[in-house]
Specification:
The chain is α/β, with parallel strands linked by helices. The chain is 41% helix and 18% strand.
Length: 301
């Protein structure tokens, strides 16, 4: 599948459900057929051209079966277009906007967006390398929340991979990649889990003076700078501000239970902001390889 830098060219290649089915067939069976029932590797055309029938047990399987497109309640072509927009638009789309633009029910839009988020998560993110800055923030509304007492707010641990370049005789800092993790508290053990999940063990990690990081870092390279009201961590605080603005502005409210899925969606697009033309094909391939997600699993996961 080629890369697409704009929506019109994508809709030219994927203008009908049959265009989408051809892509799914290529991704699912392009390297060979294996029967899900008996393991046989020979097949013929099934009940329609986009089904394959096992020559041994006669099991029919469609190109959408057992993928994240399984049993969707609206046309495949709309699903592909939604994937493009959720993968490439800078701010993504809320489920209300998806429902309005594509003429589907809001709950249906939410369920399909969860599938796209799952595919984005399954693509995965590499560990952050070299020079890293880490901090925590809280998301939500609670008038009783003060300092590092979250109350009912959700805690998010954020890490950015920074690079330095010289411009006009000055050293400028820029963000290369980022990660974000929903955590339960500010304890050293919890902070350490987030660091292990997001950051390579050879990276140099810079934090503010919060004592929890002294034990969380273990044997890692660790620098401590006073935050000075954010002056010493301008790029990190800019990223946190951008992330929280996206959560509030596009989605208005995100439950603590589903917060990590939305963080993964944001991080997926942010880390591919300079190579977004390949994002759609990457997510579509992931949706074919990922297991079918029943509605109850979308609610529980």
């Amino acid at each position: 599948m080629k890369n697409y830098s704009d929506f019109p060219s994508f809709t030219v290649d994927f203008a009908t459900d049959d265009d989408c089915r051809r892509f799914l067939m290529e991704q699912k069976w392009g390297t060979g057929f294996i029967c899900r029932r008996c393991g046989h590797t020979k097949s013929v055309k099934g009940r329609t051209w986009y089904y394959r029938r096992c020559q041994s047990c006669k099991y029919d399987e469609s190109c959408t079966a057992h993928t994240l497109f399984h049993k969707i309640k609206f046309p495949l072509v709309k699903a592909f277009w939604i994937v493009f927009q959720l993968s490439t638009l800078k701010k993504g789309m809320s489920t209300c906007a998806i429902a309005q633009q594509y003429g589907i029910h809001q709950e249906t839009a939410w369920f399909f967006k969860r599938k796209v988020q799952q595919a984005q998560s399954n693509v995965g993110e590499d560990l952050l390398l070299e020079s890293i800055e880490v901090d925590e923030t809280m998301f939500g509304r609670d008038p009783d929340s003060k300092g590092r007492y979250p109350g009912t707010k959700s805690i998010i641990q954020v890490a950015i991979e920074v690079d330095f370049e010289e411009k006009n005789g000055e050293i400028k800092q820029r963000i290369k990649r980022a990660r974000a993790k929903h955590i339960k508290d500010f304890s050293a053990d919890t902070l350490s889990e987030g660091i292990e999940e997001m950051i390579d063990d050879q990276a140099l990690v810079t934090t503010d003076g919060w004592a929890g990081y002294e034990n969380a870092m273990g044997e890692r390279w660790h620098l401590v700078f006073n935050s000075d009201g954010g002056e010493n961590f301008k790029k990190l605080h800019w990223f946190i501000f951008t992330l929280k603005n996206w959560l509030r502005g596009i989605h208005h409210k995100v439950s603590s239970f589903h917060l990590q899925k939305y963080l993964n969606e944001f991080i997926y697009r942010f880390n591919r902001r300079n190579i977004f033309s390949s994002s759609t094909s990457e997510v579509l391939k992931s949706m074919v390889k990922s297991a079918w997600m029943p509605y109850r699993h979308a609610i529980e996961m």
